[in-house]
Specification:
Strand content: 15-25%
Number of helices: 20
Helix content: 25-40%
Largest sheet: 8 strands, parallel
Strand order of the largest sheet: 13-12-11-20-19-18-17-16
Number of strands: 45
Distance between the termini: 65 Å
Shape: globular
Length: 1023
């Protein structure tokens, strides 16, 4: 395709989406529209009937255009049941490229078609109805492109409009059948893409895609490498990429070599019109596996002397080291560029060098060495192409440790696009500096899938669309518009974020925050029809927010700070038993699963239900089941420590959930689409952390042995106990609300008294309770005596315990005096009594305003401020529990807090006592993206001093250290400031903007009783 479009249009200039494209004087203006908005399913004046009209294309047009005309015919047949012909008729669809199609050029020359609004633009199309376009044709619906990809996008836009999903093959989505399809009169375009190169990276593809694709399409064609991906596989990838208006691909790299696995792969990319690239670790149009398959590295001793010779095809030592093997590596690179020239495929060349296996360079990180590497690569490009290097598109990707070169002052030549990255967890690390304009501009590498520090997340889509939007919006606002690529893992399973990423890259201003619900509704309607689009879009939105709380792979890891050090425990739930947190999050997932199942039952049978299961049903139901599994598993371990009779039933429940997990995967693999996806749903996601089973990398790496994924087992393992008979076959146990360990009464508390969490008339936490359980095998009667405490009430004061009974405890506040009251309830059963202390704190209601302290804390959701000074924007659903609030616009300069007009949020709170308090700010775990350095906010109480915090102190988003991993794993950055409260009463808490890219989720004031909860307490009562 490169011979028909400029190979070196400036990457960084940015290409604006055009609301109204200019036209020749006297011609109607071209209307910029959403995808397919010119299609109707009922006739109207001047509309063109699509049913029955042949789709005609010049056979000498670009092969990708000829091919897409065939896809359009097939798509029309999918919708109306009749395949269009290809020869001209009285009514016809004409598809072609300006300057390449005799059909289109003839219409232009005859004055029948005005293309002045799109001619010369990048990847821009025009859809219009033309009267009497040529002899023998009365009317034509014309799809014209400014270049071949413009034509391809224009044709696929028609497919989208008539109801064919971009995912029709990848997710077996049937379109809604139609009897009539009409094209509205007028001139339409989807504008010119804002981001020039838009695409994705297939990565981390084992075991799922790596198992399924060779079985479905046939083994790779490189001898000895049957796991390679063939041109037939990539043809399906290219098609969906183009249907999504993407143009750029990084091919799979886990043991795979695009050029070798099928010699037709590059040719197939050219035939489709795809721009090929290579990932950040694979320079000069060569995948790293092309080196690994043919080189054996020499072994050196500590002095650097070779003790075991190595080899590579270029006469070198086989080492992936520029210092030690530069001549061979340069020859290897030269062959990559030569292949691009010889085969004539369109490509963007990756510069720089990283270590083999996605690691840092073994030669060190000296700037001079990287300068030498980039200079050598550009010299090779010039020598091979015979043109200045600036005429070949190039990128330098600042992934992980590579960003250090930039931070220390190294700059690539001005024509190179500098690709900035996220931290692998969806938080961008750097935005362009307005003071550093580059002809090559900037790009973005973003992740929806990841393998590495913290822990892999590969199983299901975990992207929160609101979070993705906020980060992409910021990238665009700061001028990042050259090349965007997303790591989409297996692709299948990340359909929704992939489609949104590419839609947004095409036209960021078209998808403002206020339209995200509309986008989700459109996605649901396109894939499942209009009838259930609204409830499906609601499920998708809630799914994204619930997943954003924590990756499912991390549901057996609790992260704490011990003496200032980050400590991982891979055999504990991150959620607390206190405040019923684990129960509540599990119930939220359970209810989402119920909603999904109800929707699934309402959908028509056949293909729609298959598509539903692939795109929504599996990820929702399987994740809900995983929460059920973890809840049963960790409750089982707690019960085992307490010797409860119910212990083994929880083990049964956890094991049953594991069986359901396998059954859901088996349904996906065997039943959906007639078994088309057999072998795909094989990604382990439960046994992370099991060092004894699969080694020291278990903390972050998927369960695998010898690079082959292992089927999941329960980890930690559930426990089964032998319940004792006792003297009379029954034994009383009592646990109180908030117990996190195996403490129980009367015998398992080591002298610690049983005390319920403090009661308050202003509490919002779940009601306090005691659990009366059996440690034996014989049922017994229990009673709870509150006669000495007239203000206490229990829901079931008497009953019988087979295994256990939960009894809620409440307070009659009319009978509690103002101040602090204390009393004891007594639990009796099986001949034993256990006293439980209850404390009630009843403040005077006089003068209370705002959020009222209860239980030793005040919890506030960020969006519930009393006053906002300056520009702020609420982003619903971006937080782990609700909305977030961020300074607006995101390009505001850094502020010095404290002035009357300084941007801030103010919250009115009522505190019950004087003393020192700690204010915790829960922020999205963002990185210091601006050249000012740091990421700061300020907090003050009343007119007290403003305490300023840099939230990233100790975190390293390049080295991916433990502090960074804690923030990203927990998906929140919680930092604290200390403040003095001079007296009880109403106070004003102020959150001050310093840097514009903070996203505040919650504020929590700890007055001395804040419990350790993963999500923090429920929001306090506001009066």
């Amino acid at each position: 395709m490169g011979e028909y479009v400029s190979r070196r249009a400036v990457l960084g200039a940015g290409l604006a989406a055009v609301p109204v494209l200019s036209s020749r004087a006297g011609s109607p203006a071209v209307r910029s529209t959403d995808a397919g908005a010119y299609i109707s399913f009922s006739p109207s004046a001047g509309a063109f009937p699509l049913v029955g009209a042949p789709v005609v294309v010049d056979p000498d047009d670009h092969p990708g255009v000829v091919r897409v005309a065939g896809d359009l015919r097939a798509d029309i047949e999918r919708v109306v049941g009749v395949r269009p012909g290809s020869a001209p008729a009285r009514l016809a669809v004409l598809v072609g490229t300006i300057g390449r199609s005799a059909l289109i050029d003839g219409l232009v020359a005859a004055g029948k078609l005005d293309v002045s609004g799109i001619r010369g633009s990048w990847e821009t199309s025009l859809q219009t109805v033309v009267e009497r376009p040529m002899p023998g044709v009365d009317r034509a619906f014309v799809v014209a492109g400014s270049d071949p990809r413009g034509t391809i996008f224009g044709a696929y836009d028609v497919s989208y409009g008539i109801g064919v999903s971009p995912w029709h093959w990848w997710d077996d989505v049937p379109p809604t059948p139609r009897d009539e399809v009409w094209v509205l009169p007028g001139r339409y375009s989807q504008g010119t893409p804002v981001v020039k190169y838009r695409g994705f990276f297939i990565n981390d593809e084992n075991p799922a895609l790596g198992t399924w694709a060779p079985a479905y399409f046939g083994p790779g064609k490189a001898p000895g490498y049957p796991g390679g991906f063939t041109a037939d596989f990539y043809g399906r990838v290219f098609e969906v990429l183009l249907r999504l208006k993407g143009n750029y691909l990084w091919p799979a790299v886990w043991g795979r070599a695009f050029a070798e696995d099928d010699p037709q792969n590059h040719r197939r990319a050219s035939e489709y019109g795809i721009v090929m690239g290579t990932s950040h670790e694979a320079p000069m149009m060569r995948g790293i596996e092309e080196w690994n398959r043919h080189a054996v590295a020499a072994v050196r001793d500590s002095s650097g002397t070779i003790v075991t010779p190595g080899h590579d095809p270029y006469g070198g030592t086989g080492e992936w080291s520029y210092r030690l093997n530069s001549q061979a590596i340069q020859a290897y690179w030269r062959a990559g560029v030569q292949r691009m020239v010889d085969q004539g495929f369109e490509g963007v060349v990756t510069l720089g060098m990283r270590g083999n296996g996605d690691t840092s360079l073994p030669d060190g990180d000296g700037i001079e060495l990287m300068q030498e590497i980039i200079a050598a690569q550009r010299r090779i490009i010039e020598e091979v192409t015979g043109r200045p290097a600036a005429e070949t598109p190039q990128v330098w990707t600042l992934y992980k440790e590579v960003q250090r070169y930039w931070d220390r002052g190294l700059r690539a030549p001005d024509d190179v696009t500098v690709v900035l990255t996220d931290d692998n967890w969806g938080n961008i690390r750097k935005h362009p500096d307005a003071a550093e304009h580059r002809a090559g501009g900037y790009g973005l590498y973003y992740h929806f899938d990841y393998v590495g520090a913290g822990r892999n997340y590969k199983w299901v889509d975990t992207a929160n669309l609101r979070n993705v939007w906020e980060q992409l919006h910021a990238a665009h606002a700061y001028g990042n518009r050259g090349l965007w690529v997303a790591n989409v893992g297996d692709l299948k399973g990340n359909e929704l974020p992939t489609e949104f990423f590419l839609n947004y890259a095409w036209n960021p201003e078209g998808w403002d925050l206020a339209r995200l619900g509309e986008w989700e509704g459109r996605y649901a309607r396109q894939n499942f029809g209009a009838a259930e689009a609204v409830p499906i879009s609601e499920v998708l939105a809630e799914y994204g927010q619930l997943q954003a709380r924590r990756k499912p792979e991390l549901l057996n890891r609790r992260i704490t700070l011990v003496d200032g050090q980050v400590v991982y425990d891979d055999q504990r739930t991150p959620f607390a038993f206190g405040h019923r947190e684990l129960e509540r999050v599990t119930e939220e997932w359970r209810e989402l699963g119920r909603r999904a199942e109800r929707i699934g039952r309402r959908l028509p049978g056949g293909g729609v239900r298959d598509a539903w299961f692939e795109l929504v049903g599996y990820e929702v139901l399987a994740t809900a089941n995983l929460y059920e599994l973890r809840s049963a598993e960790f409750t089982n371990l707690l019960y085992a420590a307490q010797g409860r009779a119910a212990t083994n039933s929880l083990a049964d429940a956890a094991e049953a959930a594991l069986v359901r997990d396998f059954a859901l995967a088996d349904h996906f693999n065997s039943a959906v689409a007639g078994g088309k996806w057999r072998g795909f749903q094989t990604q382990p996601h439960i046994d992370y952390g099991d060092v004894e089973r699969y080694g020291p990398n278990a903390g972050w790496q998927q369960p695998e042995r010898d690079n082959v994924a292992l089927p999941d087992v329960l980890f930690p393992a559930v426990r089964r106990i032998e319940v004792g008979e006792g003297a009379v076959g029954a034994e009383l146990g009592v646990a109180v609300d908030g117990s996190e360990t195996g403490v129980w009464w009367p015998g398992g508390a080591s002298g610690v008294a049983a005390v319920l969490p403090v009661f308050s008339p202003y509490q919002t936490r779940p009601q306090q309770f005691v659990e009366v359980f059996n440690r034996g095998r014989t049922a017994f009667d229990y009673r709870i005596d509150t006669s000495s405490v007239p203000w206490l009430a229990v829901e079931r004061a008497r009953g019988r315990v087979e295994r256990q009974v939960r009894v809620e405890v409440a307070v009659d506040w009319a009978r509690v005096p103002v101040g602090r009251a204390e009393g004891v309830l007594t639990v009796t059963g099986a001949g034993v009594s256990v006293p439980v202390t209850c404390v009630a704190e009843k403040p005077s209601a006089r003068g209370l305003r705002g959020f009222v302290e209860a239980g030793g804390y005040v919890a506030i959701d960020a969006e519930h401020y009393d006053r906002a000074v300056g520009g702020w924007r609420r982003i619903d659903g971006i937080g782990r529990t609700g909305a977030g609030v961020t300074p607006w616009p995101v390009t505001l300069p850094r502020q010095t807090p404290g002035g009357a007009g300084s941007p801030r949020l103010e919250y009115e709170v009522s505190l019950l006592a004087a003393g020192e308090v700690t204010v915790w700010a829960y922020l999205s775990p963002r990185n210091p993206v601006l050249p000012t350095g740091g990421l700061r906010y300020g907090v003050s109480l009343d007119d007290g001093p403003i305490e300023t915090v840099d939230i990233n102190v100790g975190a390293d988003d390049g080295l991916l250290n433990a502090v960074w991993a804690r923030n990203t794993s927990d998906n929140v950055n919680a930092t604290a400031t200390k403040h003095s409260v001079t007296k009880a009463g109403v106070h004003r808490l102020k959150f001050w903007m310093v840097d514009p890219t903070v996203v505040l989720q919650r504020l929590v004031i700890d007055t001395g009783g804040l419990p350790a909860l993963y999500l923090g307490p429920l929001e306090s009562r506001r009066v």
